[in-house]
Write a structure and sequence with these properties.
Elements lengths: L1 H28 L6 H22 L15 H27 L2 E4 L4 H27 L1 H10 L1 H15 L8 H21 L2 H18 L15 E5 L3 H4 L9 H23 L18
Antiparallel strand pairs: 1-2
Helix pairs in contact: 1-2, 1-5, 2-4, 3-8, 3-10, 4-5, 4-8, 5-6, 6-7, 7-8, 7-10
Length: 289
């Protein structure tokens, strides 16, 4: 019982530090806080700051204790980004083929398209990395230490869905799909042993939906991509409508397929004697336990 209370106290302390840092950053930002790019940067800085401070309090642990090994930053985030884009492509194809989503041409140049793509990645990185730190960083570590990987995966998945519950145009199917996305992100962390993979996957999905597909992501319109525009939104039940692909059955199918693939990988690890997931908790020396 004492260990459970201790874990809850640590989680509460992490949340309190994050909120305090976020409020302080918002006050310093002033009117600029209304910009999407500023909001993402503030949230990321607050999440990173809270992680560093709570780790210092909790045994002076390094960031590698949160599966953030610096040596795997580029390969992990890059691999995750590509995976996120790859998952979205068949979802988009299904939305077009079965949902009636249609595209047309829009104004712009190739240079504008490329520059907007780069800007979109920068803007989306903050929220994606922040959400991963807030749920699958320190909280995931504490939950796994106290209650195991399965419980940690379930609780962070539920929290991820709740976190998006106030987004514009959200509905029951959207919340189910967001939960599936949270499950996928938690599984990629446990399968690879790297939070960089989860950050990259999160970023790649959001980028593919909001820029490549030129659709809202989680109910938010982030950018209007040059050269291409949605000519007909199609059947919202399949395409997700104003919430984006996460709000429709096409998104459900794609996320279930991705979760199934990772579950098969995890099952393979179990049969080889490595347990359901190939990677566990990072030890104090940066290795895994």
């Amino acid at each position: 019982m004492k260990k459970a209370i201790g874990a809850l106290v640590r989680l509460g302390g992490f949340a309190a530090i994050f909120v305090a840092l976020l409020v302080g950053a918002a006050l310093l930002a002033g009117d600029a806080v209304e910009r999407v790019s500023v909001q993402g940067a503030m949230t990321l800085l607050a999440a990173l700051g809270a992680s560093i401070l709570i780790l210092r309090y909790d045994g002076r642990r390094p960031l590698s204790d949160l599966w953030l090994d610096r040596s795997g930053a580029l390969s992990g985030s890059g691999g995750g980004f590509l995976l996120g884009v790859v998952i979205v492509i068949p979802v988009l194809v299904l939305a077009v083929a079965a949902g009636g989503l249609r595209y047309g041409s829009d104004q712009g140049t190739v240079l504008q398209y490329l520059s907007t793509a780069a800007w979109t990645v920068v803007v989306l990185f903050g929220p994606a990395a922040a959400e991963e730190l807030l749920l699958r960083g320190y909280p995931m570590r504490v939950l796994m230490e106290r209650w195991g990987a399965a419980t940690a995966l379930v609780l962070t998945t539920i929290a991820f869905s709740i976190l998006h519950g106030a987004n514009p145009h959200v509905g029951p199917l959207a919340l189910v799909n967001i939960a599936l996305a949270g499950l996928l992100l938690g599984m990629i962390l446990l399968v690879t042993g790297s939070l960089w993979w989860a950050i990259g996957l999160h970023l790649g999905w959001n980028f593919a939906v909001t820029f490549l597909a030129d659709l809202p992501v989680s109910g938010l319109t982030i950018v209007d991509a040059p050269l291409v525009e949605v000519a007909r939104p199609g059947n919202a039940l399949i395409t997700g409508g104003d919430f984006g692909l996460e709000g429709g059955l096409a998104g459900t199918a794609g996320l279930l397929a991705a979760v199934g693939f990772l579950a098969a990988r995890a099952r393979g690890g179990r049969e080889s004697g490595a347990g359901w997931f190939a990677h566990g908790l990072p030890a104090r020396d940066g290795t895994e336990s």
